[in-house]
Amino acid sequence: MDPATIGLLAFGLMLVLLAMRVPIAFALIGVATLAAFTIFAFRTGTFMPERAIRATSSLVFSNSFDLVHSFDLSMIPLFVALGNIAYRAGITTAVYNSAKVWLVRQRGGLAVASVMGCGGFSAITGSSLACASTMGKICTPEMLRLGYDPRLATASVAAGGTLGSLIPPSILFIIYAIFTETSVSKLFLAGVLPGLLTLAGFVLVIWVWIRVNPKLVPEQGAAASWSEKMAAAREAWPAGLIFAIIVVGIYGGFFTATAAAAVSVVITTMIGFAQKRLTLQGLWEAVRETCVQTSAIFIVAAGAKIFVAAIALTGMAPALVQTVADAQLSPMVLLICICCVYLMLGMFLDPIGIMVLTLPLVVPLVESYGMNLIWFGVVVVKLLEIGLITPPVGLNVFVLSNVVGKAAPIGTVFAGIWRFLCVDVVVLALIVGFPSISLLLSMTAR
Length: 446
Prior knowledge:
Elements: H1 3-19, H2 24-41, H3 52-68, H4 75-88, H5 91-103, H6 109-122, H7 128-138, H8 140-145, H9 150-161, H10 171-180, H11 184-190, H12 192-212, H13 226-235, H14 237-251, H15 257-274, H16 280-314, H17 316-327, H18 331-346, H19 351-368, H20 373-387, H21 395-404, H22 410-433, H23 436-442
């Protein structure tokens, strides 16, 4: 059997299994192993399974071993732990509380504070789903209690939660860097301006929405005194310190990204105990949550590594590159096609699953056109960010709805989310049309 045919069948089987809600890690490992076994068995032209067993076993175990022993991959549990410990220590909550005190006088100030709180949370941890879940517990119930329209109260947090994908540190950037062999530090820097641009766009959506329909929010709250504002700002200093350690440490040449994550975890733990907001029980719960979340990511990443190796055996990537070259597509047309594929997949699959499923074929195409992989990484992560709030699935929407409960049905969240989706599309167009938005800061990284 032709390897390319086996590759096409493998992709088809993957989509069927994912549609049947088979966990993506098991689908990746199962399909990749079956595809590799079939290719090795037909290597001589006739089906000889006895010759395929050892080769397939070697491919599966060696790729899994190499991935788990990757130094870059150690950043993921560290940054996940950083976010969990910071939450248990009240550091992420302090960011939201500070923004709330400063913005309470403004109509809709809590919604803006929620988005800014999500941005602050994203600057500490790299998970969009964790950001939506955590900030949903903190922000949404309070907005609903004060009389905010449920669409605004939920959509602002669901959209704000996606900032965890772009604002460094980002788990998606780490996984992209591992599979494309690009610089994690440059990717982190490349995501800063697009992330801040997205945050500003979300704030603008809230401001315009309230100006058009003032009944969405209650009357202006009592203004906080200057002393209260300064006290709130002081409460948020640990978050600023942690972000500074990560940014200055990495880009000042003091730490590697992994070392910066480790130092941040230690300092966050020390601050939590010093402020008496973190207990041994809270630390244990944070470690336990980190183990669960990291294990899930590692299993998917291991399956992806095996899948990439199996696809390499099929020769599909070179064949696809040649097919596109023969079609003589312009770079912009190719990029639009890639964006459409990611947006469609984003309606049904989780971000990590989309990334590991598509990168083996998409990256060779992008490289053949001479596109910058750092810039393309930002485009991919932005597309994945959009997928988190795109119906009919929208993982951030489902997470937030589960956290809030009956007060925020999924339909209510989606009813408000389309305004933020429009801003996301505009920011995506700017990133695609003006690569310097992503590359300006990354050029300074080592």
